[in-house]
Amino acid sequence: MADTTRKWDASPAANAPDNEEWQQFLAGAAKEKARKEKKEEMDKQKNENKNLKTPMTGKDWIKFAVLVVIAISFILPILLVLMNSFKKNVAVSNEPFSFPNSESFVGFENYTNGIEKIDFFPAFFTSLFITVFAVAFIILCTSMCAWFITRVKTWYTKLMYLLFAFSMIVPFQMVMYPMSFVANQLSLDNMFGIIIIYLGFGAGLSVFMFAGFIKSVPLEIEEAAMIDGCGPVRTFFMIDFPILRPSAITVAILNAMWIWNDYLLPTLILNRQKTLPMAIQYLRGGYGSIDMAAMMAMLVLAIIPIIIFYFACQKYIIKGVVAGAVKG
Questions:
Q1: How far apart are the C-alpha atoms of 183 and 189, rounded to whole Å?
Q2: Where would a tag sit more exposed on the chain, N or C end, judged by fewer CB atoms within 10 A?
Q3: Burial class (CB within 10 angstroms; exposed 0-12, middle 13-18, buried 19+) of 230
Q4: Model confidence at 49, in pLDDT bands (50, 70, 90)?
Q5: Is 103 inside any structural domain?
Q6: 10 φ, ψ (degrees, to nearest 5)
Q7: For residue 69, what pLDDT band results from cuts at 50, 70 and 90?
Q8: Whole-number pLDDT of residue 103
Q9: Does 262 share its domain with 318?
């Protein structure tokens, strides 16, 4: 009987049958191995490049110095307000740029006095209510409007878009008196009606940003949702609105900073309620007297919430602005 046993090589390739499929498999495996090795080498090179520090040139130092000066010019007023909020009223007027010392330091006395004088908490919650609901209405209504304008290609949607863009360049001073008269006639001179007015003034920029972002959203995603049975409303809220989150957060930050710090519009519209900027102005007495120490303390309390909100959401600002700048 013939010996049918086969002597096997140590190499797997030598033991494999010599056919075309096996050769293709070996070639594919070799390519995959080369690809992985190349990827590992590129990742290693990338990590090494991260650790490398490029020496700064003369132009870089000049740019750095300019940015430092700009940063100081923005931060210094806030530091001055914070520093003077712990000093006596006389020291704030006579030595506003000096640090608190044993004679001028009063601790948190200015904060307690300011809170009592202006009824801080009612004004704070009025501002919070107006800001939260106005921003929510702006995001909801303008995002739907921008989606309709972008997806429905007709002459009147183009006209609407131009009107929203035009509203951004109209100065508030041109419309504030007729606006306050109309608001009074329509009984919008309260903290519920002012939300609608803020919606009107904030719609221009918000629609512009949302429309730019929606143009970058592929239409095929919405078509797939409609094939699955989604109507226009479900398509917007289940498909488009989650994608709009970067722009929505950017719009929320910009409008929240504006509405929270706004003094002129609530002064013209509100009759009974007062927002926080309005309440702080009550520290101005008659004949030019101003309780500067208490005012500094109240300004610190007024800017803390909006600074916290800004730092919590600042990473979305650039992303939302860049996404909203897409040309459709």
A1: 6
A2: N
A3: middle
A4: low
A5: no
A6: -70, -25
A7: very high
A8: 83
A9: yes
Alpha carbon 83 to its chain centroid, in Å, reads 28
Q: Is residue 17 part of a domain?
A: no
Q: What is the DSSP letter of 99?
A: P
Same domain (yes/no): 280, 133: yes
Q: Is residue 178 part of a domain?
A: yes
Per-residue pLDDT band for 8 (boundaries 50, 70, 90) equals very low
The whole-angstrom distance between residue 12's C-alpha and the CA centroid of its chain comes to 60
* pTM of the complete model beyond 0.85: no
Q: Are residues 84 and 132 in the same domain?
A: no
According to the model, what pLDDT value does residue 5 have?
46
**In the predicted model, is pLDDT for residue 196 greater than 90?**
yes
CA distance to 122, 189, 191, per residue, from 272 (Å): 12, 9, 9
Q: Do 132 and 249 have their domain in common?
A: yes
Q: What SS3 class is residue 45?
A: helix
| Nearest to 142, CA basis, from 255, 231, 238 | 255
The dihedral sign for the CA sequence 197, 199, 205, 207: negative
The amino acid present at 100, given as its one-letter code, is P
Domain encompassing residue 73: 58-94
Alpha-carbon distance of 323 to 315, in angstroms, equals 13
- Which among 315, 165, 313 has a CA at the least distance from the CA of 252? 313
> Region 22-45: what's the mean pLDDT?
77
Residue the block writes with tokens 């109240």: 298
What whole-number distance in Å separates Cα of residue 272 and Cα of residue 61?
Answer: 54
| Residue appearing with tokens 């803390």 | 304
Higher-pLDDT residue of 172, 55:
172
The pair of structure tokens assigned to 118 is 């202006």
The residue-averaged pLDDT of 288-295 equals 81
More confident residue, 39 or 160: 160
Structure tokens of 38? 């190349």
- Residue 85 and residue 158 in one domain: no
Burial of 210 (0-12, 13-18, 19+ CB in 10 A): buried
For the chain, what is the domain count? 2
**Cβ-proximal residues to 139 (8 Å cutoff; 6+ apart), any chain:** 206, 248, 251, 252
CB proximity list for 249: less than 8 A, separation 6 or greater: 313, 316, 317, 320
